[in-house]
Amino acid sequence: MTVPLADAIAEHVHDGDTVALEGFTHLIPFAAAHEIARQGRRQLTLVRMTPDLVYDQLIGLGVADQLVFSYGGNPGVGSLHRLRDAVENHWPHRLAIHEHSHAGLANAYSAGAARLPFAVLRGYRGTDLEEQRDIISRVTCPFTGEELAAVRAVNPDVTVIHAQLADRDGNVMLWGITGVQREAVLAAKRAIVTVEEVVDEFPEHTGAVILPNWVLAAVCVVSNGAWPSYAAGYSVRDNDFYLEWDKISRDREAFLEWAAANGLPPQKENSHV
Amino acid sequence: MTVPLADAIAEHVHDGDTVALEGFTHLIPFAAAHEIARQGRRQLTLVRMTPDLVYDQLIGLGVADQLVFSYGGNPGVGSLHRLRDAVENHWPHRLAIHEHSHAGLANAYSAGAARLPFAVLRGYRGTDLEEQRDIISRVTCPFTGEELAAVRAVNPDVTVIHAQLADRDGNVMLWGITGVQREAVLAAKRAIVTVEEVVDEFPEHTGAVILPNWVLAAVCVVSNGAWPSYAAGYSVRDNDFYLEWDKISRDREAFLEWAAANGLPPQKENSHV
Amino acid sequence: MSDWDSADMMNVAAARELKNGDVCLVGVGPPNLAANLARRTHAPNCRLVYESGAIDAKPRRLPLSIGDDDLAATAIAVVSVPEMFNFWVGAGRIDVGFLGAAQIDRFGNINTTVIGSHADPTTRLPGAGGAPEIAAAAGRVIVIVKQSPRTFVEQLDFITSVGYGPTGRERRTRSAPDRTTEPTDAEPTGAGPMGAGPTGVGATGAGPTGAGPMSAGRTAVGSTGAGPMGAGPTAAGAMGAGRTGAGSMGAGPTGAGAMGAGPTLVITDFGVLEPDPGTNELTMTRLHQGVTVEDARKATGWDLKVAESIEEVPPPTATELAALRSLRNRETADA
Amino acid sequence: MSDWDSADMMNVAAARELKNGDVCLVGVGPPNLAANLARRTHAPNCRLVYESGAIDAKPRRLPLSIGDDDLAATAIAVVSVPEMFNFWVGAGRIDVGFLGAAQIDRFGNINTTVIGSHADPTTRLPGAGGAPEIAAAAGRVIVIVKQSPRTFVEQLDFITSVGYGPTGRERRTRSAPDRTTEPTDAEPTGAGPMGAGPTGVGATGAGPTGAGPMSAGRTAVGSTGAGPMGAGPTAAGAMGAGRTGAGSMGAGPTGAGAMGAGPTLVITDFGVLEPDPGTNELTMTRLHQGVTVEDARKATGWDLKVAESIEEVPPPTATELAALRSLRNRETADA
Q1: What residue of C is the nearest CA neighbor of A188?
Q2: Distance from B117 to chain D by nearest Cα, in Å?
Q3: Which CATH number fits domain C6-174+234-328: 3.30.310.50, 3.40.50.620, 3.30.200.20, 3.40.1080.10?
Q4: Which residues in A lie closer than 8 A to residue D85 (C-beta atoms)?
Q5: Where are the domains of chain C?
Q6: Which of A205, A217, C11, C123 has its CB surrounded by the most CB atoms within 10 Å?
Q7: Residues of D with catalytic annotation?
Q8: Conformation bin of residue D53: beta by default, left when phi > 0, alpha when psi is -120 to 50
Q9: What is the pTM of this model?
């Protein structure tokens, strides 16, 4: 039931797609992100609550034209320098920004997963984020007259996540901090999951999310596929790399050297801009 | 951390309250319902997706003035005769009906749990249920112009559920079919949980719901508190009683005999009507 | 007389409509029997979803309620009821939904709420349950109901679930997220003695009896001007085959909220009705063995439309009857 | 000079504001340190909630991110991020929310988004994260930020999170569901050397420095004419004490969506600012040891308001400093 990661990316991720790679600190699908870059995808709209290093890398490589996000920092370390360089200096090219709060983007995924066009939340009121009227608006409660925030649903072309386990039928199980992965998968047209390993039977885990095989386009075995993020029960977060990234990413040359050393080709041109 | 059930009901359930006893076939809090009746509560607004035998009994006893629900049958058996007698013949008194679909009432609880005044769903369109404008209305998506259903939030004064376990701190764990219990508890002003037993540490259970003690008003140990419903891992559903209830409940006299035999006093008067 | 009755025939006919890989929302009563019969005969990989939250349940015995522990214990996943209705039913992830009816009209609209007025009914029925949203969002809906003039009525007392609408023209279909993987086993679809029947063309298609011309194959995807967030709800998830077909009224965000093809099949103790491709009026297209058109007309509260060429439903096979009895006796599949 | 610096003082002062039983939403950086310091000193039963989904986490070592496995492994429950924001943060179940700021104005409004214009910023900051909804819905908000004219600005470049609004008068509070059980241990609240400070009156009260007269004690409940479904959102969950206080602008469904009392405390490296009870203008009420009013004024980009009677913040105790160092060295609590 599993396929090689390269095949899954080749088949399901296309230039210009809206792509969500999710995982809240935990289970970030780095290996899949690198495969997307390796295959030269471009003009992607990247969606992710916390861009983290994984999107800092993709943005620096020029893979993305647009970014939808809610918090763009290197957790506990500082800035995402490639993201900042793209926004502040348009390097390697211009990056359009659509930004939410966590509550807003989480609800946008949830609406997408329910195939509703929008979600309602109590948020955003009085903030300048509301000026992004194409993604954040207001609705009035028909019962009380209260005005609430509305966010446009997010429905990625492709969502990619990393999980601990698949079973022989290609059903997937993840546990620990599971973030917004279920909603992101169910909101997508196609979902790819990389897993640590395939087992005969799932263990019991309170808080686990299980995704049946028929909502998934591809399952790929990629051991340690979340590094430098982690998979609870399989690995620990490589906090040193998060610190090291601060140095690598500060400098364009150092970043390009890192990319070259990892076989990740920069996309120099952007025909859209 | 636990209190006797009688004390919890005495303290937290008052005449005229809106009370939700939840549990979808599984984990129905029958013992708590009987304690509510035993203490002579009246003029309650009862909320429950599937009234089941538990509300058939309370309605027959005259405990309720109003019923909010989405499916009122004896699952796999037939009618709820006490509910029908109340609606069709106003016995023992008139029962006001507010009815949803499952999707609508589930979302109404979810909105209540989020302290939002309403929820949006794609449902109800074209049905006569929509004529209940005080609880079902429409909203327009500010992004696409699509018109969707809206349901008024449900916020019970008290929600009561049955669960398998509490720990020594009064945190609660339930698993198996967990229905809408989390949402119903979080939507309530006060929540009471009866549990099969208290343990030192929770086991691992995929799909379990855990409720921290600070969202609960009272935890009571009531072994087999869901009978004739069941608690997965502790008991099996008493399907024979569900069949037997069909006979007991068909006839007012047989019902009153059953009530007397179980120490459940009928509330004859209803000052509201 | 044979060793089966009209109730058996209804359940068998319904079971035959399920195919391997179908995601089937199962309610109590005949649907439960039909779906589990399909799993024990020609469609072992039919995926049963129960509105109690059990996804891909594999009950070892016929469950007596939709909340039996056997469903949770054998399901791939158990989700909350709000999630079931928002992320699974409402999102259009159900291929086949079964409904019952206390009343049904010629356009497949259903009443399960009251006989008489809602405020002061002569008969209080159970109510809506999951039906309105299943009716709207399931890829196709199969109604199982005994045919009688009291049930097949000219005018419903209450519309609980919408079929093709009061005039047969109100239903609009929407894109729905189709599964992205194919059924997991290689068994041919429609392996039962009748094949999958005329509504079962393709694993996810609504079939030629749907509300209008169906788009076939892979629906165009890509962002259709909905801004940076992807294609937006009108094209959301329109990946798989078939169900995207818009019907004669066209699709889009101003539609009536329905996603699926509607009640493509009504299975009764007399035979099978299907909506007329032009008007959506329920039309008797098949009769059970020993039933005449005249019988069916007498059991219908309106002037029943009958297909020009009417087929006979093949009677239950020995295999089907044995499986049915085993289920009714609550034997396990291995017994 | 002492054996502590201004960063230590900020963390210690913030930790002291947490009480046993407080439900505290913890973000990365100083809040993480302050909350865990409180747990290791005077408030061992302070309940830590991380927006990654961990509820009642009891980290054995200082987590380096809000997604550390130690949080999930030691939490009472781990929920999804949508659930965290809808059912916990948005529903008003957080007593204390900590926020940082790149810019803050005199009414406690915060920018963490951009310096310059949003379309073409000179400095791109991380963005909103959970802050806007924490700022709106937490029972009280504590801002931890270093004081400088670049940070304490007359005019924000961007409003990411609302304090008391652009003129200090825009905040309206709403009912919120309070916990229904009391803190689980008997330790007196406010056990730190300063007590809980002036904002910490009662376990759930917003305190006298809130936006206006606070209703005390048990708020009236009961259905207020909202129909059969209970009291509706305006009274929903208004059971516990204190937080229901409406503020001078009144509460109700037309309010600005805020539930909590707002930024009742801003803790800096110079001291503590609190909103003026009348105008909500941030007012320097306490100074750290060795800091003068003049120092604070120079570090503020507007004409800083100073309380008539200004107190000195007691310096860190030896116990506090030891716990702080142990946390920074990522030692376990038992070590």
Answers
A1: C237
A2: 5
A3: 3.40.1080.10
A4: 102-103, 106-107, 121
A5: 6-174+234-328
A6: C11
A7: 51
A8: left
A9: 0.90
